[in-house]
Amino acid sequence: MTIEHVLKYNQDTGDIVSIFSVPGGGPPTEGIIEGEEPMCYKNYETRIEGSWAYFMERYYIDGGGNLVDRGAKTNELQTWNGTAWEITLANFLADVRRKRDSLLFQSDWTQIPDSTLNEDQKSDWRTYRQNLRDVTKDIISNSAPYLSLTTEVAWPTKPE
User: Fold this and answer.
1) How confident is the model at residue 26 (pLDDT cuts 50, 70, 90)?
2) Which of 41, 94, 133, 146 has a CA-to-CA distance to 118 between 20 and 30 Å?
3) What CA–CA distance (Å, rounded) separates 34 from 150?
4) How many angstroms separate the CA atoms of 72 and 50, rounded?
5) What is the pairing mode between strands 67-69 and 5-10?
6) First to last CA, the chain
């Protein structure tokens, strides 16, 4: 039996936390790593092709020490809940806030005293910016359609 890689994983969650190649010497003994509980080693005979990060995201070690395929994420916002990929409200809101903050930053210039906008235009931009800040309220009050990806975020329209 030739060991190609050693997988270091969290005994409690099964998450693979690192992978390293076995360069000719003998692999470590499988099992709990002394002083690093709940971390364990798992010897792996198959050469991992491609991204190790992808491998670590896609697979985990179950309670019986077996390598299990979680399947691929269908959305970057998903996290593994122990049995399936899911989008949490916290992840979704963090993504919405990143986009919202970027849109606010791009419109900061509209509110400075020496902008070339007249008062009506500034007012339109203030309303737009407030609507951006309020976009998370609807999501929080009714998150299910957003988390199931059946509803798109209704971003306010930027003034002309």
Assistant:
1) low
2) 133
3) 47
4) 15
5) unpaired
6) 68
The DSSP secondary structure of 14-56, one letter per residue, reads: -BEEEEEE--SSPPPPSEEPTTSTTEEEEEE-SPPPS-HHHHH
DSSP 8-state symbol, 110: G
Q: Sign of torsion, CA 140 143 145 146?
A: positive
CB contact burial 37-58 (16+ within 10 A = b; e otherwise): eebbbbbbeeebeeebeebbbb
Cα-based angle 146, 150, 156 (whole degrees, multiple of 5): 60
Inter-residue contact 100 to 133 (CB < 8 Å): yes
Q: Which pTM was predicted? A: 0.66
Alpha helices (runs of H) in 12-159, residue ranges in sequence order: 52-58, 89-106, 119-141, 144-147
> For position 37, what pLDDT does the model report?
58
The model's pLDDT over 41-91, given as tens digits with 9 standing for 90+, comes to 888 888 888 899 999 999 999 888 899 999 988 888 888 887 889 999 999
Q: How many CA atoms lie within 13 A of 23 on its CB side?
A: 1
